[in-house]
Design brief:
Order of helices and strands: HEEEEHEEEEHH
CATH superfamily: Lipoprotein like domain
Helix content: 25-40%
Number of helices: 4
CATH class: Alpha Beta
CATH architecture: 2-Layer Sandwich
Strand content: 25-35%
Number of domains: 1
Length: 193
């Protein structure tokens, strides 16, 4: 019995060591921002033009962690700038504004300033994931303009590395919250009246 137990114990220890050193694979997040135009004033056919800029230094959102951290990058699947542009245009059109190529009543520039993910060790057993998103907007109307930025952030503690679903939920909810804050901004809505 002792001879059977010893190899089993060794196999269990090797399995635990390898699991602890497991490599986390890269992750692509499917962002699908959903913008609610409910707070926007009625467009009544007034025209707009939108330019969306990805102002981040890198398309890498963060690292999932693990032994080989540099190979566990989190990025967006698809063109995040285009997805954000489609949502902004869609929300304005639903509110009754009309998209045009030139000579618009309102010229929008929306910039994705930050979309980040950071994973830190709290102690030997716990990890903390911090995510943040920030968008800024500048709207020009005739000889006046309105500018503001909108940030959302959150953190969560885990007793292991967060899995892909947890990362995706945290990042998409934080990203959507920053965009919602932009459209719900009282100053922006006054400027559009």
């Amino acid at each position: 019995m002792k001879t059977v137990f010893k190899p089993l114990l060794m196999l269990s220890l090797v399995t635990l060591v390898l699991a602890g050193c497991a490599q986390l694979s890269p992750q692509q997040i499917a962002f699908q921002p959903v913008v609610s135009p409910d707070s926007l004033p009625a467009g009544n056919g007034r025209t707009f033009w939108v330019d969306v800029v990805d102002g981040r230094n890198s398309t890498v959102i963060g690292q999932r962690g693990g032994v080989y951290e540099n190979s566990s990058a989190i990025t967006a699947s698809g063109d995040l700038r285009k997805q954000l542009e489609d949502q902004v245009v869609g929300a304005l059109e639903v509110a009754g504004f009309e998209a045009v190529e030139m000579n618009a009543d309102f010229e929008w520039t929306v910039t994705l300033e930050e979309l980040s993910y950071e994973l830190n060790d709290i102690d030997a057993a716990r990890k903390e994931a911090k995510v943040a998103a920030e968008v800024s907007v500048e709207i020009v109307k005739a000889n006046s303009n309105y500018a503001n930025s909108f940030r959302s952030q959150r953190s969560a503690e885990f007793f292991r590395y967060p899995d892909e679903a947890e990362n995706e939920t945290m990042l998409t909810e934080t990203f959507d919250a920053a965009i919602d804050r932009m459209f719900q901004d009282a100053g922006l809505n006054r400027f559009l009246r």
